[in-house]
Amino acid sequence: MEDWADEARVPPGLADRALRRRAWKPYGAAVLVAAMIAAVAVFVTGQRSPDPVIRPLDGVTLPARPSPAPTDVRTDTEHSPPTKLIAAGRMAVSAYYRTRREPIENGLTRVRYDWSLYDPRTDGYEQTSYAWLDVAPGLQVAAVVEGDLLGKRVGVLDMNTRQVLRWYDLEHTVGSVAWSPDGTRIVATAYASYPNIMQGKGDQMGPVMTASPRTGYYVIDTRTGETAYHELAALGDEAGKPSNMNGRQDLGWSLDGTLLWAPTSTRPDRLFYTLDGEPRQAPEGERCRRGTSLSAISPDGRLVLGGDGMPTKITEVATGRVAGRQQVLQLHAWADDENVIALGCAGKCENEFDNGLVLVSVDGSKMTQLAANRDSNGEGAWRWVLTLR
Predict the structure, then answer these.
(1) Is 4 a domain residue?
(2) What residue intervals traverse the membrane (predicted)?
(3) Is residue 263 assigned to a domain?
(4) Does 287 map to a domain?
(5) Taking the alpha carbons of 103, 106, 108, 112 in that order, is the dihedral positive or negative?
(6) CA pair distance 234, 143, nearest whole angstrom
(7) pTM metric for this prediction
(8) Burial call 263-295: b when 16+ CB within 10 Å, e when fewer
């Protein structure tokens, strides 16, 4: 339920279970890239231009991220999906996707992703034709998968010019991309066939319970142009071990960028590997929101986000004491040390699927609507990607 909630409608009787257990999947994190190879001057309005970093001939020039990053609150409560940038504190909605279903052979259904990407030129969002994308910290560059459903080319797209700075040609088809926290490397998850296949009809539609077609992954280093492929079999349903029967099993990064993680549908919710694919223990002290690479711990290290279900709670890391409760459905990401981007619901929350992004204080006393409410269980509902600004 947690991993395919974006693709299947939830039957009326499952609302409470879905609320407590469904994980929302913002994918991704991002960098600031501004030119190919040659050194260029990067001008940020009102700031001193940082010196560009010169990379080898096979890499791309990665300018420093804007410093300080913007921290203002930006809202669009009139449009769903949004037409203007949504942001609060250190985080922004860098992209969003909508899903649509199409019948295929043998009575099965394929779920497609339609991606829209933040456009700094208009301060809004523009629909793209890419199979998958992820935005690097700074909201200046995106990693994109060229293709219809899967692709054999990954590009680094300058979001300001909409030009691809570099294409990486791959031998294996990939279905997702994710930036490392420092915005220099990309992990691209490889699949032998398209993973988002559903069976059943109407409210009974669910994922096909067969082995995932994940075959491995690439680590792409934008500094050198190196693309290294590693085999990594998908998780199955082996008794007594972490398992995952979902078709899509995209890889993500640990918070310090030294390890990769693969999702499970059990506990723990992820397994860690070195960049070469060797199993490792979870990094000490790392706590992320389920199914994402977003830290659950506040920037100052004092507080940690609790699980889904109204009311939510935030506790102290050191003592476990409850620091505050919030009248929201889910806590998604820290805007700053005192405020969290969350999922709130309309009115008195008579229908938890009538919801939208809000900014809520730790003590729950202050709440600002960031995005318009929408039917999250409806056909074509938009799902946001949160990225560091």
Answers:
(1) no
(2) 27-46
(3) yes
(4) yes
(5) negative
(6) 23
(7) 0.84
(8) bbbeeebbbbbebeeeeeeeeeebebbbbbbbb
